[in-house]
Design goal:
The structure is a homodimer of 137-residue chains. By secondary structure, chain A is mainly alpha-helical. Chain A has helices at 28-36, 41-47, 55-61, 67-79, 101-135; strands at residues 53-54, 83-88, 94-99. In chain A, strand 2 (83-88) and strand 3 (94-99) form a beta hairpin. The longest helix of chain A is centred in the last third of the chain and has 35 residues, at 101-135. The structure holds a DNA duplex (30 and 30 nucleotides).
Chain lengths: 137, 137
DNA sequence: ATTCATGGTTACCTCTTGTAACTAACCCCA
DNA sequence: TGGGGTTAGTTACAAGAGGTAACCATGAAT
């Protein structure tokens, strides 16, 4: 709306010496955030809440995930020690997925993320509508 | 290691009636998680901690982000009402990005995610090493 | 003999993301 | 007067992640 009105930059709010964590692409934190911040891992961890789930159960529950991406995502989470995979040698096959103790500690903070989105979804929807209305003028 | 040993599935741990939130692909929570859980938004929000930053400052700070993806990510965050964009009509241009009040509330939970990764990075590195060793046998 | 169920894998195609070059606007400096 | 520098972008194209659909193995049930 009134973007770029003629106030001068104040320079007062910027470059305060806030704590700056490591953002290098190859650092551990980034590599873990990349895993958490991929398309499906958040969902999987959020769903494995205090219980194990079978492959097909996860697939049915997570709307839109493909069989391939569920396999890939679960393998990555297993590799990171966040999810355990238990194969029972029965026919038809049965594979249970469950959060590890480490995964449980992550679940808590991810749950708070989900809760945040639930709490603020209308605010975001409003913001989006306002932005879109402004742009399409 | 001892995957698929001959224990029978107990059926005891599964399908407890845990609270099941909406995972439909088109629901608000999913759409917001998709934004938060993309490749760069988490990083941007985490960095905009109590201060505004200029475009180039963000670009220099976030290792590996391209100019294009920074633009795209910031526009999406602006659209969602999480980040505000202030253009000063000076030459060379100056654009400040800052968390909105809504963005600040999200920053808190994202910060806890970053803290989690910092706390558990060695555990994850260990798990990865163990997994990789097992697989390459 | 055929069908069904589960938990995958594979080949292929599409859509998102990354790369690199280009632009606009004005200042500085010789 | 004109060449170079600055910032915040945009654009065209290449690379990589993700989606789609078909296939496999196993044995039980019909």
């Amino acid at each position: 709306m009134e973007e770029g009105t003629s106030k001068e930059p104040s320079h007062s709010c910027c470059t305060e010496d806030a704590f700056q964590w490591d953002t290098r692409e190859d650092c551990d934190v980034r590599q873990i955030l990349d895993r958490i911040g991929d398309k499906w891992s958040l969902l999987v961890i959020a769903l494995l809440d205090n219980r194990c789930m079978r492959f097909t159960e996860l697939k049915k529950t997570i709307d839109g995930i493909s069989q391939r991406m569920l396999t890939v995502t679960l393998r990555q989470l297993e590799r990171d020690g966040l999810v355990s995979r238990t194969v029972y040698p029965v026919v038809p096959p049965r594979v249970d997925y469950e959060l590890t103790p480490l995964g449980v500690t992550l679940h808590a903070t991810i749950q708070s993320l989900v809760t945040w989105t639930e709490t603020h979804q209308t605010e975001i929807a409003t913001a989006r509508a306002r932005y879109d209305a402004q742009v399409t003028v």
